Amino acid sequence: MEAGSRRRAEAGPRRADARRNRSRILEAALEAFAAEGRLVPLDEIARRAGVGAGTVYRNFPTKEALFTAVITERFESIIEEARSLADADDPGERFYGFLMWVVERAMFNHAICEALALEEGIKAFAAGVEEEFNAALGALLRRAQAAGDVRPDIDLRDVRALMAGCVVTERLRRADGPPGRMTALACDALRPAAVTKHRDESPRIVRNESRCEVCGTPLTTARTGRPPRFCGPACRQKAHRRRSAAAKSG
């Protein structure tokens, strides 16, 4: 056999071994990051993969590079799921169902949970994946808002923050509460109206709006800060006088 042919024949198996090693490292890292987040050492990932630490470092020079590769692979499947719902009927329920599905997956995967957090997500995603995820999620959000199933004042950052928060609250409540309860409660805050019941079990629609405590005028809820209690200075003064009078008479 000529030298060139022999080198090519030897290179083929080596490339196949390298691909297998990389695949084993990614699988082991997925399990390790899912269980422990980014705190797991690379040596532990090498042990789980059944390869030497040097093999891990040849494929991924840093733990951050390995985490990025793992989370990118996970989020590509999440993006694909979101895109599959882009033209589905009942956009509101599809949107809320997608949120609950992602939260449930992140419940048992610290890597997804960390990447959902706004600032952590920017660090975790490979180039372009953050934008693709936001675009797919944003498309579901806009369709749900156009259908009247999500409040118009909600934006993508609200949804990202809510998803990350739901993972935390689900973990806190999961021991003694039904799965998905905390996420469902959070999703209710995104709806223009929530159906509740009186003690006689008759349904009642509660709008997501507040009213002046004195005259009952509807108030515009601010995006930040404390919710308003009065429509203006006149009603605020009137409420103050009422409290003063009540205190003196008491």
Question: Mind telling me the C-alpha Rg?
Answer: 26 Å
Backbone shape: elongated
The H/E string reads HHHHHHHHHHEEEEH
Number of strands: 4
* Percent in helix: 55-70%
Helix/strand structural class: mainly alpha
Amino-to-carboxy terminus distance: 107 Å
Describe this protein's structure:
The protein has 250 residues and is mainly α. The protein is 65% helix and 6% strand. The chain contains eleven helices and four strands, in the order ααααααααααββββα. It has helices at residues 3-36, 42-49, 53-59, 63-84, 91-107, 110-116, 118-124, 129-146, 156-173, 181-188, 233-249; strands at 193-197, 203-207, 210-211, 218-219. Strands 1-2 form a two-stranded antiparallel ribbon. A two-stranded antiparallel sheet has the order 3-4. Strand 3 (210-211) and strand 4 form a beta hairpin. Helix 5 (91-107) packs across helix 6. The longest helix has 34 residues, at 3-36. It is elongated, with a radius of gyration of 26 Å. It starts with a helix and ends with a helix. Pfam families: TetR_C_43, TetR_N. Keywords: DNA-binding, Transcription, Transcription regulation. Residues 19-78 form the HTH tetR-type domain.
Outline of the structure:
The protein is mainly alpha-helical and 250 residues long. It has helices at 3-36, 42-49, 53-59, 63-84, 91-107, 110-116, 118-124, 129-146, 156-173, 181-188, 233-249; strands spanning 193-197, 203-207, 210-211, 218-219.
